[in-house]
Amino acid sequence: MTDKTGWWRSAAIYQVYIRSFADGNGDGVGDLAGVRARLDHLADLGIDAIWFTPWYPSPMDDGGYDVADFRDIEPLFGTLAEAEELIAEAHARDIRVIIDIVPNHCSDEHRWFQAALDAGPGSPERQRFWFRPGRGPDGSEPPNNWKSRFGGSAWTRVPDGEWYLHLYSSRQPDFNWDNPEIRTEFEDVLRFWFDRGVDGFRIDVADGLVKDPHLPDVDDGDETPFSDQEGLHEIYRSWRKIADSYGGERVLVGEMWLPDMSRAARYLRRDELHSAFNFDFLVCPWDAARFRDVVTRTLRAHDEVGAPAAWVLSNHDVTRHVTRYGREGDTGFSFANRLHELPVDRERGTRRARAAALLTLALPGGLYVYQGEELGLWEVLDIPDELRQDPVFARTRGADPGRDGCRVPIPWSGDEPPFGFGSGGAWLPQPASWRDYTAEAEAADPASMLSLYRDGLRIRRSLPAGSLEWLSLGEEVLAFRIGTGFTFALNFSAAPVPLPAGEVLLASGPVDGELPTDTAVWLRS
Ligand code: NOJ
């Protein structure tokens, strides 16, 4: 692998949600064999690294974010030996490998949680989690009023009468990070995978590990006692030392949905995490002023700590952005609002997604591409209830359809489902219209989303580096220059605007002397 110093500062990282990427053994579920067979798609796309969502043994209550063993591979996905081969094969193509680590919680099938259940109240085994007696005369009320982020209470009672904390599903008990054993364990897990060649970790719920030990009640929506606690910084400083003790620039990427970007940036100081997903960008509604504001705040907050921004439009937790941007009404994203009920104009969503891709690829810093985004896939809204698997659907009693719609298996080739995903069907149904959105069909079409991503990722490598300077081309045109010689413009207004001067390097749609609505352009100027 070529050694590019600071590679992570500008890396394009492709997110693989393994069970929906490609199925190598014909059981309808994606696996490592499937990924290995499709590595050339990723090499041709031109990405720098892959981030794999959790690949550990798991009962799959939360798509693998319920980990039963942090040092092995889920048998549905393959074996540890295959994972090692996959890492080597990616490296041979100059692609780095980042894996997910899930330190906030484990599966209820993890041996430590099973031991805690067996050992009973007051035992050291229970100190690895948050077990507490209940409230009320007979302890039948949860210890506090915290809500699970998947709906319902964050507490579940066990037969001996104690309750345990789970910020997610009841099958995902939270670890107690005040216990030094947990710290040692995860440091060892980091080394286990670094020793096997991984180039970094995406840290799940990175803001949530440390809790206020008094577990106080909260007012509605207040997350203070279980998010962004000061004690987290010390944990990440020790993780950073471990990462830095390995060669080849191993990286730590935080998943943090924090309301205040300058708080999030504190985790990106030089001795803590390398980068964090920019979710303010992801949730931003389709509006020039809002995007200008997010980009400005992001660059300022990151500059203060010397960290690169990491732009992201979609992932396995949110409505795909073709659908978000195509909505009538609120084009942003929120976990809380019932936006899934709004009508969608997919053609408009696609036009905007193309423009957003060029924006993301042009901004200073790194970026993420969620599998299928490069094909222009949309959220599948009509999955039958009985096939839905996300615990969010069951825990909200169907009020929230959950996240299955962005996790539908990828269409690779052919005219009929499962579109080359594998030989044994697909674990969630794919729309018949995806026949026009297979990787094979799009590779042959220079006007496809795939061609746009390939061209964008290739040209991006030779764009000038430098700081971003806003250009005033009107309130509803987002335009900036980077260094000397590169101009970006995106027209959010309802009417065409004059094309800025320069030679067109790439455009998200036809541009002929003018820049049409919802269209972005890259210019050498
Ligand atoms: C964030 C992950 O991205 C999501 O898929 C998961 O459900 C939660 N963390 C809990 O692990």
UniProtKB/TrEMBL annotation:
<feature type="domain" description="Glycosyl hydrolase family 13 catalytic">
    <location>
        <begin position="15"/>
        <end position="403"/>
    </location>
</feature>
<dbReference type="GO" id="GO:0004556">
    <property type="term" value="F:alpha-amylase activity"/>
</dbReference>
<dbReference type="InterPro" id="IPR006047">
    <property type="entry name" value="GH13_cat_dom"/>
</dbReference>
<protein>
    <submittedName>
        <fullName>Alpha-glucosidase</fullName>
    </submittedName>
</protein>
<comment type="similarity">
    <text>Belongs to the glycosyl hydrolase 13 family.</text>
</comment>
<dbReference type="GO" id="GO:0009313">
    <property type="term" value="P:oligosaccharide catabolic process"/>
</dbReference>
<dbReference type="InterPro" id="IPR017853">
    <property type="entry name" value="GH"/>
</dbReference>
<dbReference type="Pfam" id="PF00128">
    <property type="entry name" value="Alpha-amylase"/>
</dbReference>
<dbReference type="InterPro" id="IPR045857">
    <property type="entry name" value="O16G_dom_2"/>
</dbReference>
